[in-house]
Amino acid sequence: MIAKIKQLLAEVEAMKANNAEELEALRIKYLSKKGAINDLMADFRNVAAEQKREVGMMLNELKTKAQERINALKDEFDSKDNGSCDLDLTRTAYPVKLGTRHPLSIVKNEIIDIFGRLGFSIAEGPEIEDDWHVFSALNFAEDHPARDMQDTFFIEAHPDIVLRTHTSSVQSRVMEVSQPPIRIICPGRVYRNEAISYRAHAFFHQVEALYVDKNVSFTDLKQVLLLFAKEMFGADTKIRLRPSYFPFTEPSAEMDISCNICGGKGCPFCKGTGWVEILGCGMVDPNVLESNGIDSKTYTGYALGMGVERITNLKYRVNDLRLFSENDIRFLKEFEAAY
Ligand code: DAH
């Protein structure tokens, strides 16, 4: 009897089935009423009394093992048959990685925050604009080169409609519907017809600021510029203004900050000069105020505009513009800690 149990145990352990029918045949062979194990159970009463305990235990073990083995084989079929298994392919991969803020958004928000503390509120305008708001209302002459096809994306069927080349267009959008005091900051995307390279792109981002009120002077502008530079680049930052020309400001200037890489000593980044240019600015040209319905005898104003990519390059040393729009996760991850 013991030999028979051992033999069946070995058989049970080696049981294999290729399909449900084979499995059922095994179940019938070993576990059904007329199966091999039940036959042994029936013989149990013939076992000598002193062996009953040992044989009983072995029989029970055999029965349990057979049942377990059949169950295990059945589980295998079930998971293969209906395609369901413990692996849920629709489940989100863990750990869930949080996204990070884009470097341009980080810097844009910093700029907005600094001007926000000075009382500027956000204004926005359309990226697809008309010639009036981008050029004419801002005192661009009819033949100004910026209107040239080479700089500006025009809509072929509507030469009056352009992709805005600067956020200065929002100045006129705001002035035409409101009266001073006006103190706005206009962040947004702008477009120019440039060949894409590490230092030029067909789209980039600007932040424009405009302040129009009674008695606004160039001194006010300088003070705001200095404060902005120190907040953005550190308390040691110096600024200098160079005379320049923009159609919409008079006088106009470009602002340099002391190179924040070498601290003004001169390095390859600032081409040995110790200064780097960061923005354009000036007093709003009276023609611009008048074109947009504001009395230039009562009011004066200043405006300034800067490129967000340029500021980001200075702050985070991103010197290839293309990186900003490639969405390479390795690049974006570098800014995880920056906000
Ligand atoms: N709109 C100019 C540009 O895109 C930048 C600029 C210069 C804006 C001077 C201003 C300003 O408001 O006063 O290059």
By secondary-structure content and strand pairing, the structural class works out as: alpha+beta
Strand composition percent = 15-25%
> What would the principal axes of the Cα set say about the shape?
rod-shaped
**In which range does the helix fraction lie?**
25-40%
Quaternary state reads single chain
Bound molecules: 3,4-dihydroxyphenylalanine
In sequence order, what are the helices and strands, one letter per element?
HHHHHEEHEEHEEHEEEHEHHH
Instruction: Compute the number of strand runs.
Output: 10
CA radius of gyration: 39 Å
- Alpha-carbon distance between the two ends: 78 Å
What does this structure look like?
The protein has 12 helices and 10 strands. With about 350 residues, the protein is of the alpha+beta class. The strands form 2 sheets. It has a 7-stranded mixed sheet, sandwiched between helices. It binds 3,4-dihydroxyphenylalanine.
